[in-house]
Amino acid sequence: MVRYLLGRLAQAALTLLLVSAAVFAGLRAMPGDPAVLLAGEDPDPETVAQIRAELGLDRPVPVQYLVWLGRMARLDFGESVRTGLPVSDTLLTRLPVTLELALLSLLVAAVVGVLAGVAAAVRQGRPTDWAANAGALLGLSVPNFWLGLMGVLLFAVVLGWLPASGYVPPSESLTGNLAGMLMPALVLGTGLAAVVMRQTRSSMIEVLGSDYIRTARAKGLSPARVVLVHGLRNSMVTVLTILGLQLGALISGAVVTEQIFVLAGFGNLMVESVFTRDLPVVQAAVLVTAAGYVLVNLAVDVCYSLVDPRIRIQGGRS
Amino acid sequence: MSPALPRPALAAVLAVPLLLPLAACAPLVDPVAAADEERSSVRAPLADGGELVVGLDAEPDALDPTLSTTLVGRQVFAGMCEKLYDVDAESGLVPQLAAGDPVVSGDGLEVRVPLRTDGVRFNDGTPFDADAVVRSLDRHREMPGSTRATELDAVQDVRAEGEDTVVLRLSRPYAPLQSILADRAGMVMSPAALEAHGEDFARDPVCVGPFRFAERVAQDRIVLEKSPEYYAADEVHLDRVVYRPIPDDSIRLANLRAGQLDVIQEVGPTDVAQVSREDGLVLLNQPSSHYMGMTINLRDPDGIGADPRLREALALSLDRETINEVAFGGVYQPACGPIPPISEYADETVLACPGHDPGRARELVAESGAEAPVPVELMIPNDPVNILLGQTVQAMAAEAGFAVRLEPTEFASSIAAAQAGDFEAYISGWSGRPDPDGNIASFFTTGGANNYSGHSDPEVDALIEDAAAATDPDERQELYDELVPRMQEANAVVYLYRQRYYVAHRDGVAGVELYPDGLIRVAGAGRTAAAAGDGG
């Protein structure tokens, strides 16, 4: 297990190196010179040249990359070229918002999706199944921006129950924090819940049709035990994969949801920074996101073996 | 005040048929009339204390007056950094940290700025004096990457004369200087803060102002708190001002309605009519010098830029009134030239419009010998409002025999293409300067930084230079009267419309001031005593 983990971590480091090189090259291939944007509305060539030199943009790209890599190795993320603020501070203030949003919406998706999926599978072809499927179709079809805007109009503008925007750190006020995150998590979670429901349903139907379930029933186990212990546990592998992949996507930022609820998360940060050609911020944010993806995937792989003992991790002891 | 214009009346007439079908189910609101009621502030008795949350339409850039380039950044400076001069409600220039108007020597080469000495202190307690002004001006002129350096190009040397006067020596007479000192170039930074942070002043900016910088969380909020050092601190009511960037117009407005924001910059043009009659909201409205124009690439040998007849035809095909109606619900103003109606140099000649003449446009296309429809590639900003603008232009140009293809392009890429001369026509905006020179020189002078069209005419260059150097207003007026029609004839830039500033706030707030420079002034703002009494 330890050897396996070390091997995976080495792979992860290589992946991150490749990602950073690709992002670095891609950003520099983009049209639009950051120095020109920084020089303002009336840029004179001398100022632009000065700014280019200040930012090191006048050096060859491979040299820029090595310099950047050297700074990264010392955990020096540099400064935002647009705001002049340290990138590490910016990322650290974003991380809790993004993580909380990701985890809460994942929770919404998992609870709603798994419950609806199990119910639909058990009552296959009956009204419960139809309702769950219709709900899933709706969840997948309704775009987040529309759902979000309607939520804001109804719950914030008309009823005034929830705030329209803003992030309150849980250390300041836990209820304020949850009030602010409730709508975004629900909006972001609905689409995901639909995916989880479909997966749970199909994999449950498959499992419930298998021989050992028939045996379990024949032994006289209670229906709840059959479904939840013997059925659900064995369906969880596919569901976990989906949740893991989605968590990766959620960490990279839910751009639309963040914009509607004005949450300062990673998605917004990256989009804004690409538009303003704030290269140090984009590079650092992509790297952190990629690291998140890699770690989540690793964690999912480890979880497989916990949920399903049939899966043996290579190099582990059986 | 700005001269009365016949255009809004005409636009109102045009708007009536558009609105009639709605009359049966909704109260008839004439957005043009709403737009015309200029209101810069609402007065009410104010309670002391409280917080004002301002929604901005973008994330401000570095809070360093030497480096700042955005209007949204100036919104934040308006709360914490006073300038040598300020713009008043009538677009006039008034002393702020200066004690009076600048005194210009006979040859126009020496400018003396008298300074306030009545106990003015920076927000860190450092006294304000001539040495501090010299240090800031020198930083603006000399720091690498300074975006003020071009504005202060004419300044050769700055020195203090005693504690209360600075003397600027110029390399040439330069009329726009005072208006430039009414913007970021006139902001004075605390010498102690410059000593402590150097080029990283933006991390903890300290100026003279009603509020001082407290905290900035990038893309989330900028917090200012009341400054005890401010010379007029007893006229400041609020404890804190929080600026939050919310780029989307409808989300910003929803947050104002829900009470998360107290003030919003920039009400979207389609929301103006609704907000103007909405209970609980107050709409402030000012004319601006911000314009959008279509730059035509004169250097493109295969494009319409190469043939003056085609450029003129394209310009004549556009009906600016209808553009304003269709794309902006009639709440902006048609624009035909670089000098805004609020300028002191806006006389009849300067404001004259070549107008809309599709018949003549078709003749010109035929005369040019080009095969109709003439293809035109039009680069436009890729947001919904500008795409609608592009489509309107496309439809109008089609009637004159042009086949316009729209190329929505993200801002940074469009600037790169424009600078490389890699475009045929390009719709872009200019935030506008109070002095006419700031709206002309960079766009029309040979080799100017914003001269994307490649316009080059030695006579026009000379006129631009003479007008900027003319310190006598009558002489300047004559020069602009000659210059502007020549610019219009060239059709290197086809002016389309001028924006108006629309700011909204909740009615529990008063004293927020909006002037024609578009800045939201919060120094005298506060919670109304009535709202505070309700516990609001």
UniProtKB/TrEMBL annotation, chain A:
Keyword flag Transport: yes
Subcellular localization(s) per the UniProt record: Cell membrane
Superkingdom of origin organism: Bacteria
Domain ABC transmembrane type-1: 95-300
Signal peptide (UniProt feature, chain positions): 1-25
Keyword Transmembrane helix tagged: yes
InterPro entries listed in its UniProt record: BPD_transp_1_N, MetI-like, MetI-like_sf
Family assignment from sequence similarity: Belongs to the binding-protein-dependent transport system permease family.
PANTHER family per the UniProt record, alphabetical: DIPEPTIDE TRANSPORT SYSTEM PERMEASE PROTEIN DPPB-RELATED
Listed name of the protein: ABC transporter permease
Natural source organism: Nocardiopsis endophytica
TrEMBL record, chain B:
Magnesium found in the keyword field: no
Domain Solute-binding protein family as annotated: residue spans: 93-450
Leader sequence segment: 1-26
Pfam family, one: SBP_bac_5
UniProt entry keywords in alphabetical sequence: Signal
CDD domains per the UniProt record, alphabetical: PBP2_NikA_DppA_OppA_like_5
Cited InterPro entries: Peptide/Ni-bd (IPR030678), SBP_5 (IPR039424), SBP_5_dom (IPR000914)
Protein name: ABC transporter substrate-binding protein
Organism encoding this protein: Nocardiopsis endophytica
